[in-house]
Write a structure and sequence with these properties.
Layout lengths: L8 E7 L6 H14 L4 E7 H4 L6 H18 L7 E4 L5 H10 L4 H5 L2 H7 L8 H15 L5 E3 L5 H17 L10 E3 L34 H10 L18 H14 L3 H8 L4 H27 L2 H30 L4
Parallel strand pairs: 1-2, 2-3, 4-5
The structure holds tryptophanyl-5'AMP.
Tryptophanyl-5'AMP (TYM) binds next to strand 1, helix 1 and helix 7.
């Protein structure tokens, strides 16, 4: 338990490890945009997380600019929300070390994302990949963030952040020092699946480029990918219940719902009884309407990396003012000589 009484604060981040896709948009960025006018928000680019697997330096820089451009193109206003890069604020790494000494090996051994990413040959995975969720806890708690908007795949990492916060508060007898951050996961976009395989999540690292709709895709690419999306031969049911056991159909209906702001039941009230020959073109039209303008703005912003870099530097300066103070307090609590 924590008796944290500080201000409500929202924080989230995206790894700079590839192209932004519809899952990142619906699971995370769309929520970031909505929250920025409700609470104090900090949105960062997890470049230190990205290097837990090999990244070519030039690509890493380009991907960092790609994601900050995506944030802005989707409507995050850097004057309202603080937008920065993780490596630009030293305090993340400093707090992560202290948290490495709080987290238990048994906790990290349970992390399913490490198992997925390390694969069979875990002896060859980087140590950073293993302690990845500890750095994530530091990202959140260095700002004493109370709310973290993420997709469903981050749920276990958020639970670990809560465990670390709770254990720190308990071990140092400071029950109200760190908040236990709440994940904000709900909504139809929380788990967008691959267009080729309804049992796999849409992912930056999918080998098939037809599996994901990227935010930079133009109208032709979007329409082609939706046309090729794997489906089944049945017509759509008239209620969401009827989608059970039909993961590909459920995914396409979920995408339609998330983009239109409707529930799956409302979408099916309109399309129930119709086949994919009718539903896919309607979905393609909706995706192009919502994503097309983002792609155009993204390309415009990416053409001016100097501006993007200045946004990140200013954001990092504002973020560090909060984070440095937390690290100062933590060092004192732990017993380091100031
Ligand atoms: P990352 O970069 O894999 O994904 C960024 C965000 O997008 C969401 N997401 C999805 N949502 C729905 N459907 C999908 N197919 C899908 N794919 C990705 C993710 O849930 C996430 O919200 N570890 C994090 C980055 C991170 C972070 C943090 C997040 C580092 N530190 C602190 C929050 C707080 C990650 O790798 O996300």
């Amino acid at each position: 338990m924590t008796g944290y009484k500080g201000p409500e604060r929202v924080l989230s981040g995206i790894q700079t490890s590839g192209e932004m896709h519809l899952g990142n948009y619906l699971g995370a960025i769309k929520k970031f945009v909505a929250l920025q006018h409700e609470r104090q928000c900090l949105y960062f680019l997890a470049d230190m997380h990205a290097i837990t697997v090999w990244q070519d330096p030039e690509r890493l820089r380009a991907q960092t600019f790609h994601i900050v451009a995506t944030y802005l193109a989707c409507g995050i206003d850097p004057k309202v929300a603080t937008v920065f890069h993780q490596s630009g604020v030293h305090a993340h790494a400093e707090l992560a070390w202290i948290f490495n000494c709080i987290a238990r090996l048994g906790w990290l051994d349970r992390m399913t994302q490490f198992k997925d990413k390390a694969g069979k040959d875990k002896e060859r995975a980087s140590v950073g990949l293993y302690t990845y969720p500890v750095l994530q806890a530091a990202d959140i708690l260095v700002y004493k963030a109370t709310h973290v908007p993420v997709g469903e795949d981050q749920k276990q990492h958020l639970e670990l952040s809560r465990d670390i916060a709770g254990k720190f508060n308990h071990d140092y007898d400071k029950p109200d020092f760190f908040p236990l951050p709440e994940p904000l996961i709900q909504g139809p976009g929380a788990r967008i699946m691959s267009l080729r395989d309804g049992s796999k999540k849409m992912s930056k690292s999918d080998a098939s480029e037809n599996a994901s709709i990227f935010l930079r895709d133009d109208a032709d690419a979007i329409a082609r990918k939706i046309k090729k999306a794997t489906t089944d031969p049945e017509v759509l049911p008239s209620e969401a219940k009827g989608l059970e056991g039909r993961p590909e159909a459920a995914n396409l209906v979920g995408i339609y719902a998330a983009l239109s702001g409707k529930t799956s039941d409302e979408v099916l009230a309109e399309f129930g009884g119709k086949g994919f020959g009718v539903f896919k073109p309607a979905l393609a039209e909706l995706v192009v309407e919502k994503i097309g303008p983002i792609g155009e703005e993204l390309r415009r912003l990416e053409a001016d990396p100097g501006h993007l870099q200045s946004v990140l530097r200013e954001g990092a300066r504002r973020a560090a003012a909060i984070a440095d103070e937390t690290v100062r307090e933590v060092k004192e609590i732990v017993g380091f000589v100031g």
